[in-house]
């Protein structure tokens, strides 16, 4: 027969048993969590590092591209230059091309960010993650709001770079080993698209273009020097410190100058201008294919929106620049303006001041005469030369707008 105190004793015993069981379960879970955050870098990635003259403990830099849905891993090699190691497909990002400006806009940030060791989260609800450091000084200067923008696992994004668990685990391991090797923080560069001259020309009418030109300056600097750009903010704009190496600084300025010239050339050649629109962000084609095959990636945020990702609206149609008239064959040149022809005296009189070599003052004129006149004559003979336009048929403002 139980004593009057027996129910209370049994209650205390049950509570202690339950508590012990919970503690045991927690003890089992903690090693698993620790193991998840301490997984080694895959062997094939280590081999890629070795092939580029670098190693696991060397500093890293990450570059993200929204339009292409990719994140690149760069590592500093023995010569002190960052080299590309691997490209990871992004499983999901949200919003549109363009910077993040406020809490809840679902925008994935664009700009230059810093990731310190304290921003690594081994206990993330999304497997593993790290905070990219939004908002940075530029964002704050423009009144941007929001926080906790991550690179994390699974395939769901509300302003983050969602990478799936396996990829997030590898990026976490790569960053962890760089911190262990002595790197205090690494740079995370986020771009709307690969900052090529062709892409800049193609998106030239986008309202974000003034901001994107600032990003391109930093991107060009990194590509030319192989150094992590030293980034600041001056008068609300990104500012980049010059390289300490004069040769690298000259290379950075030359590349940026050449890229700007190339953009202008592409526009002049008649490239189309577009705006890329999204229902809500995009996804790399690799993951879209794997998901259709049944590969598990976790929850996919707004899967219906992915059908309308990356729709291009043409704002200015491409136009083909007419080819220059073909050069006149030498036989036709001689027949039209050579000795014995009606035009020869004109040609001889024109060239008289240049006998013995044109003076520097007229050198360019003589060269243009020799190079262009035959083509103009050939075009006239072929009825391929339009009559001269004595009035501009289109206002200057409209012509500029077509570029």
TrEMBL record:
Residues making up the signal peptide according to the UniProt record: 1-34
Pathway: Cell wall biogenesis; peptidoglycan biosynthesis
L,D-TPase catalytic domain ranges (all copies): 60-187
InterPro entries: LD_TPept_cat_dom, Transpep_catalytic_dom
Family (UniProt): Belongs to the YkuD family.
One Pfam family, short name: YkuD
Name of the protein in its database record: Murein L,D-transpeptidase YafK
PANTHER family membership: L,D-TRANSPEPTIDASE YAFK-RELATED, LD-TRANSPEPTIDASE
Keywords of the record: Cell shape, Cell wall biogenesis/degradation, Peptidoglycan synthesis, Signal, Transferase
Biological process according to GO: cell wall organization; peptidoglycan biosynthetic process; regulation of cell shape
Biological source species: Methylorubrum rhodinum
CDD domains, alphabetized: YkuD_like (cd16913)
SUPFAM superfamilies listed in its UniProt record: L,D-transpeptidase catalytic domain-like (SSF141523)
Gene Ontology MF annotations: carboxypeptidase activity; transferase activity
Catalytic residues (positions): 152, 160
